[in-house]
Design a protein that fits this description.
heterodimer, A: 268 residues, mainly alpha, MetI-like fold, 11 helices, 0% strand, B: 370 residues, alpha+beta, Rossmann fold, OB fold (Dihydrolipoamide Acetyltransferase, E2P), 6-stranded mixed beta sheet, 8 helices, 21% helix, elongated
């Protein structure tokens, strides 16, 4: 081990405080009894959480968000699976360009993506609805899903599939006995990360949703009313915890992918 | 299933004029080989010679462009691997990482009508055979390289294939384990009588384990013969230089009779070489080859065909079981290598000394220059 440098230690601690202090304010103020968001704290209270239970528009927004997150992460994972399989197994004309276009939304500013999608949808004469948000989110999540699944499929050594065929299984049996179990950690991480991205996404949802707000759009609309701020913070706390749990699961499954690839190469 | 003496001559795998290329590169070029039932056959050659492609054609992972492949007298050109009576041990073993040893070994039996109890019994039996009794519920990631190799072997053998294909199965193991596995594989093959086809680039492996060896270069099988014949009567110059060491001397043909050919080389002088020791077509130039261990420092008594060669010892290399001397025989040739097995009596010439070495005409092999 290297001797730890004191300055580096201070830097790391300062960095972590800068990164996470704002997020820590959310739970602190959501349990504060005062309506005004300022120090000193006036007392412990759970009433803001209680208020959330009675907000019908919030419940509708939450339901909308969940529907969109489930559908778009599932859709993007399906498309990502096909893309990753094709990219890892076959060489075809225009492969690099195609992959580049699929990954483009990663670097495209969301506001540009939102405006473009809105223009196209209106030109096509489609009504804005939850479905249009699902389409937008699928497009946004697809690069993430593709990258995660690409690493899962690249770790799937072709000799495993050949071994299964060689041992008497047909292509379909090989798919559900070998390929599917091997890429399942990748599928689950893709679903989880897609779900979290869609749940948090604001700009595209804001552009593409019609009359039904998603959760982030609802939160944004509530910020105009100072009286709603503490309960919005309580909502934020819940979202933070849910996201943390989902990302932890994501990390767990991502490590499973690595474990499989190590199992193949170790012991030589 | 068990090979008997009567059907030793029966070809279990028959490759007839097999050709296969990838893009513009010809991997297998018009190969015809018959592999006998119950034999241990090795495909030996440098990397990229097409030996693995040939094995994959037998397994069914590649299909030949032209030519026919018969397994057990049945044309299998378009039979997929899962239907062929062959099983393969892959170079990286291809152990399914999400399954344990029991599930890996019993994998191919899931497709049969066997009950899970009889699958369990068969797995136990085969694990016992490969020396992994009690490993049933070991996770596949907790296996060492040698253990993975045994699992791969058990997984293939449990299906009782007519032919077991092994793609460089020992190349990832360290030297001691490799030698032990060579011995065990050979024993196993003899006791169960299944035909083994081994692909390897390691000549020692091929020489020690095989009944017959096919030596491949650039997609062409140069020679198919027993290990002894491959070593003592290599059919082409490249087989001669690939297997063991060989000194070559460029020579011209002077005349030829029914029994022998008279050649002249700068270093060896004029020699008569038996026709049985001459390989290849009939051009004016030949390469004369002689193995390093055929040279002697002492003149053998009573052999009328003894010739000598003088030079200066320039290097002595200790190789464990033998000593390799390099002899400088003049400006016109590369070094001549002489190999001796130390007898413990000492008294070898020292580096720098001028020595005369002796060889017999019977030990010379000649190859026409292509």
């Amino acid at each position: 081990m290297y001797k730890t440098n004191k300055l580096l230690k201070i830097f790391v601690i300062g960095f972590l405080i800068f990164l996470y202090a704002p997020a820590l304010l959310l739970p602190i103020f959501s349990f504060n009894s005062s309506q005004v968001i300022s120090f000193p704290l006036s007392g412990f209270s759970t009433k803001w959480f209680g208020q959330l239970l009675n907000e019908d528009t919030l419940h509708d927004a939450l339901l909308n968000s969940l529907i969109i997150a489930v559908l778009s992460s599932a859709l993007a994972t399906m498309l990502g699976t096909l893309t990753a399989r094709a990219a890892s197994r076959y060489k075809f004309f225009g492969q690099k360009v195609t992959m580049g276009f699929i990954l483009l939304p990663l670097i495209l500013p969301e506001i540009i993506l939102g405006v473009c999608l809105l223009t196209v949808l209106i030109q096509l004469g489609l009504n804005l609805s939850l479905w249009t948000v699902v389409l937008g989110h699928t497009l946004l999540i697809l690069p993430f899903a593709t990258l995660i699944l690409l690493s899962a499929f690249n770790n799937l050594n072709i000799s495993l599939e050949e071994a299964s065929l060689d041992l008497g299984m047909n292509a379909w049996q090989t798919f559900y006995k070998i390929i599917l179990p091997m890429v399942t950690p990748g599928l689950i991480s893709s679903l989880l990360i897609g779900f979290v991205i869609s749940l948090d996404e604001f700009i595209i949802a804001f552009f593409l949703t019609g009359v039904d707000p998603t959760l982030p759009v609802y939160i944004w609309s509530q910020l105009r009313f100072p009286a709603k701020l503490p309960s919005t913070m309580a909502l934020g706390t819940i979202l933070l915890i849910v996201s943390l749990i989902l990302v932890s699961f994501f990390e767990y499954y991502r490590r499973r992918i690595e474990k499989y690839s190590q199992a193949l190469t170790r012991g030589k | 299933m068990k090979a008997t003496n009567e059907d030793l001559g029966h070809a279990i795998v028959s490759l007839n004029n097999i050709k296969k290329s990838f893009n513009d590169i010809v991997a297998v070029n018009d190969v015809s080989v018959q592999i006998r039932e119950g034999e241990f056959f090795s495909l030996l050659g440098p990397s990229g010679c097409g030996k693995t492609t040939l094995l994959r054609i037998i397994a069914g992972f590649e299909s030949p462009e032209t030519g026919d492949i018969l397994i057990n007298d049945k044309l299998v050109n378009s039979t997929p691997p899962n239907i062929r009576p062959t099983n393969m041990v892959f170079q990286n073993y291809a152990i399914f990482p999400h399954l344990n040893v029991q599930e890996n070994v019993g994998y191919g039996l899931q497709n049969t009508k066997l009950t899970s109890k009889s699958i369990k019994n068969k797995v136990d039996e085969i694990l016992d055979m490969v020396g992994l009794s009690g490993f049933n519920f070991r996770s596949s990631s907790a296996l060492s390289g040698g253990q993975k190799q045994r699992v791969a072997l058990a997984r293939a053998l449990i299906l009782k294939p007519r032919v077991l294909l092994l793609d460089e199965p020992l190349s990832a193991l360290d030297k001691n384990l490799r030698e032990q596995m060579q011995f065990e594989l050979r024993q196993l093959q003899k006791s169960i009588g299944i035909t083994f086809i081994l692909v390897t680039h390691d000549q020692t492996e091929a020489l020690t384990m095989s009944d017959r060896i096919g030596v491949m270069f650039d997609g062409i099988v140069d020679q198919v013969a027993t290990p002894e014949d491959i070593y003592t009567k290599p059919a082409t110059k490249r087989v001669a230089s690939f297997i063991g060491n060989m000194n070559f001397f460029r020579s011209n043909i002077l005349s030829s009779t029914a029994e022998s050919v008279r050649v002249e080389s700068d270093l060896l002088g004029v020699l008569d070489i038996d026709k049985v020791n001459i390989f290849g077509g009939s051009k004016a130039k030949v390469s004369i080859g002689i193995r390093p261990e055929k040279f002697k420092f002492k003149k053998p008594n009573g052999d009328k065909k003894v010739k000598s060669l003088a030079g200066k010892l320039i290097q002595k290399t200790f190789l464990g079981e033998n000593l390799l001397f390099s002899l400088d025989v003049g400006k016109k040739a590369d070094k001549v290598y002489i190999s001796l097995t130390p007898s413990g009596e000492g008294a070898y010439p020292k580096v720098g000394e001028n020595v005369t070495v002796y060889y017999s005409l019977n030990d010379l092999l000649a190859y026409f220059e292509v």
